[in-house]
Design a protein that fits this description.
The protein has about 600 residues and is α+β, with helices and mostly antiparallel strands. Helices cover about 25% and strands about 35% of the residues.
Amino acid sequence: MSDINKVRNFAIIAHIDHGKSTIADRMIQTCGGLSEREMKEQVLDSMDIERERGITIKAQTVKLNYKSKDGNTYKLNIIDTPGHVDFSYEVSRSLLACEGSVLIVDSSQGVEAQTLANVYQALDSDHHIIPVLNKIDLPASDVEKVKKQIEDVIGIDTSKAISCSGKTGEGIQEILETIVKDLPAPKGNLPSKLKSLLVDSWYDSYLGVVILVRVIDGKIRKGMKIKLMSTNRDYQIEKVGIFTPKAQDIEELSAGEIGFIITGIKSLSETKVGDTICDSSDPIEKPLPGFKPSKPVVFCGLFPVDSSEYQKLKDGLAKLKLNDSSFSYEAESSSALGLGFRCGFLGLLHLEIITQRLEREFDINLITTTPGVVYKLKKINNETEDLQNPSSMPDPSQIKYIEEPWIKATVITPDEYLGSIIKICQDKRGIQKDLSYSGNRAVLVYELPLNEVVFDFYDRLKSMTSGYASFDYEITGYKEGDLVKLGILVNNEPVDALSMIIHKEFAQSQGRLVCEKLKDLIPRHNFMIPIQAAIGGKIIARESIKGFKKDVLTKIHGGGARDRKRKLLEKQKKGKSRAKQFGRVEIPQEAFIGVLKINKEN
């Protein structure tokens, strides 16, 4: 029988690139989870894209046996979490399955924006936090300065902070000793009825759905019948196991432990993250509170460059959805781009990773439309409607007002870049909320509209601060905004794929930019093509592409030439106006891609 007092569940939290996955590697090595031959760098980052970019996307768990200096053997359940803001839902979920956190701060870079965000999430989950200063082998490391920064900015006592190096392995033993000594054991009751939390689930092509569980009370055994409380359906457990980090089958998981179960479920939609699992023969009355569901905040259209790849794209999205329930998609069609999908993501990095995986794993060439956010429309008849796609916006006369999502953004930057960051925040309609200092670094808090941030804010922030500033945000709610739909007309025909929702203040300049870009990118036809930007029925910008002019007068000589020339020119004019009326303007795909790039460049 497992002794619950010898179990420690903890998450490793940090800003991007502060060394979470490397320290997890050293812990696995120290505890003998893998042999030297099986070890590789960032062993828990299993996806190629994670290894290539050096970021963690999915939280991973490992169970290790650690023999401490007091002679006892402890079971350590480690969850290595992502650091990027787009994957903060993975972090919040992981924290609720643990009792403590190991906070890693790079001793050469100090506290960053996501360090703050992750610590606050851990404190909200009542975690005991162990501060660890990593990368002390670097010449730029300044342990005392960073300790003071942690105390000033976060407010955590650093008198017991541990200095270590994930690269050399120095200090890893001390971290493990502090974990078994200072972190609380899980609370749980072995003789009670089974109560267990569904932490995560993913699809395995051989086993079906693999469910990661944290057992709160009782035990979960192979062959047992369980009930998922949200769907009220019963299943039989075929396999129980743990990750060491290799998957290893065991007979049972007891209260306080984290492991996986396989029940033969084939569809991920049946396993809701945050669900409660209980014994179907002896169910509990009340489910656990669970997690807040992750909601997509950024939407864009994905279309195949070659329309014959539509089915391939559909299959690719369905397969990715199996292992990432946080993005959504639905079919849509565009007169310009053909058949495609409207997809929802947690942020721009999430969007980039999904599109990269589609292109790489399924060999599809994609066109991505301008990313947009979800707006709330209040109609004249007091109905409220969510709007993701600008082309489905109703007539302005039916709309009372439009609300847009706002975020609270935290930017941590060296002092010398503060002026340019404040300017970009003001340009993006930001409202300054707070400014404080820790040494020569400023902590700036702004309220910003999400649709201003989603295009290029992060890229511009990084480029103007040479990569030194860090940025984190959380959505605070919706506010009414002076927003309009900017429509683009080519030869008096609206082009759905180029319409966008934009603040009235920026509509004219943006409309002019799009018209100028399309003038350069649409080839000339036999007739003149007007390109217009409009808000409702009002044209706010216009460019014209001149038609080819055929010289019809060269062969006319001699008497009555003037009248004959006039007649021919009249005839040509009629032909041109008929061509303009019935002729179709072919908009090349480069034109769409060029317009989508405008938002990045400006």
